[in-house]
Amino acid sequence: MSWIQENRFAAGLGGITAVAAAGLIFWGIKASGDYSTAKEEYTSAADEVDLMAGGKVYPSEDNLQAKKKAVADYKKSVEDMQAAFEKFRTPTPANVDPAAFSDTLLKAKEVASKAFAEILPTPTEVPAEFFLGMEAYTTSPPERGATGILTYQLEALSELMANLAAATPAKLLNIHRPQLDEEKAGAKPFDAKGKSYRALPVEIAFNGTEASVRKFLSSLDDSKTHYYVVRSIRIVNERQVAPTSADGNFEKTEEAQPDAGAGSSDPFGGAGGFVLPGDDAAAPADDAAPADAAAPAPAAGGDGVILQQVLGSEKLNVFLRIDIIQFLEAPAAAAPKAQS
Asked: Where are the compositionally biased (Low complexity) regions (predicted)?
């Protein structure tokens, strides 16, 4: 008879104890793994919390109030900017009969041509086919659906030409207006959804003095009804080589005759009143002739006069790409829904 058969209780108790011990060991190992995993997750989460707490947008009450203030300040700045540009927010004129627009265009062209022709003493030269950049409509009218936006652009172009004429350039070289989408046959109306403005480009090239360029550029900020943005500018001196002494228009003066003191220590014999820079003019001798005492002093700033005679008379060739900005009407705010 075996020991297990003779000691069934002890054997059963030992078996149960072994199974229980194995189960405890397994549970302990599993619990230890779960603990390690949980600890790692906790450590990772704690690190993220510490990182957030150290950042600028940690969700605390102070940061929440600061965020609300920043949003409110930004909103006010946008509203202030909108108010500043409100005077430029002009709706697109209604479309008119193409023949009526052609009449308006012809009148605008005549006004601009007259402004350039009345410049004195020399009128501004304009291109032979000058028609405010709308030369395509000298023989045929535009599409009816484009007359509204073309009227708006024509008003801005007329103002530009009036300002340019006031700047008295020597020559209007060219004015080019890229075609708008509405001008194409069968084109759809401009889609203003999600847009706050629209750019209507125009390119102007003219020749004039530096003063005329500065005056025209300054006039772009003076408009009360239109907003202009200079997208690109190129200025080239019409003279590509530097002036030389031969270009100077020097006045010829009668040369002074050397007197008896020509052989003295003065190597210039006293002629012309030559004085080195920083030296005082020598006092006239007691026995100097009255004519010498009454001799006029040399004109001050002679070097400046010479430079003016050599420089500053060149004209400039100027190219400008200007966007006429049309600020679109703000979309109407949606009415609040009625609560049931």
From this structure: 277-298
